[in-house]
Design a protein that fits this description.
By secondary structure, this protein is of the alpha+beta class. It folds into two domains: about 120 residues, no CATH class; about 160 residues, Alpha-Beta Plaits (2-Layer Sandwich), CATH 3.30.70. It contains nine helices and 16 strands.
Length: about 350
Amino acid sequence: MAKQLGNLENPKEGRWPEDAKVESEIVVRLISNYRSPIVCSGGPVTASQDVTAEGLQSIFRIENFMDQVSKSDQPAVVLDKSHGGISSRKYTPLGKDLHRLLACPRFMPPEMQPGEGFKLFDEVMQRLNVSQAVFAGNPMHIVSPHVFFDGDSLNALMAQLQKATRCKRYKLAQAQRKKEVQRIVYSQTKLVTRLQEPSPNLYGTYVELMYHADHAKDVDLADSARHLQQTIESLTNDPLLGKSVGNFWSRMYSTESGYRTRLCLLFDGLTVPINSVNYGRIFEYWGESTKGAGVGSAFPFNFWCGHTLLADIYFSARTNRYLRLTPCNSHPHFGVSDLPRRKSPKYADDHLTSRFQ
């Protein structure tokens, strides 16, 4: 049975690393969602104008900061008595984080939705009109002519954030968002682990299915879903490509490429050796399905095997907690191919068949 997101472990190193390692892995994947390496035509790697690395990192850090705020009653600034009995103000760890985050850019790429923590943080900032205040990084700094200290402002702001995170509506939204990430990880991991049973040499390779810039705005979500379905059907049992044993995919959006799909094709390494995948054939089918509006790309040498494939599933799915395409009931933004059936053991002596699922 595939493991759920919260229980995914590294059998060699214990539980997955946290903090800086996780931030690096997730932010790198957020950035890669806005990069287009065109290998079929030999073109350069290009980046979308929708985002910056700093902006994506801010989305990640604000979301995690709000997690900490929801679990703490710690103020932003506290009184600290020196040995001489003189009191001064100093930042708490959460206060330092809040001060740094106030200087970070807050933006949202088109068609995308931030995490619930980021949305709440931005809502509180706008309601209190925080953008009009200038915080100098000194708790004793006066930020208004009414002797309103930097520390007073940050404490009031922290109190409002803590109060907002206790709201039932926010807690339910957060729980639903995390459950969605778990569902993505679970379904993709279950497919891979099931396929590894008959195919221990299983590997996956990713392709980006996008649109030319001059067609991107003309393709709606329904068109994108239809184009993907047609492409996957065309790839099935193509002798020039090599038989794919399964696939999973996710969708996002950028101004230059429109709706773009990250499709992972899974192959048995015994029948389709690594480095033998015909990317040109994949992009040819994509071009036919989109009637010339589509363009395909892939990072070179992007072959993922065994645990590295499961790790990539874990980190890639977690990006949805921080940034996701606005949900649509009629057209989901991720999917997996059907699970293969397990062969039922047969017993010649009594002609009975047992099935284990």
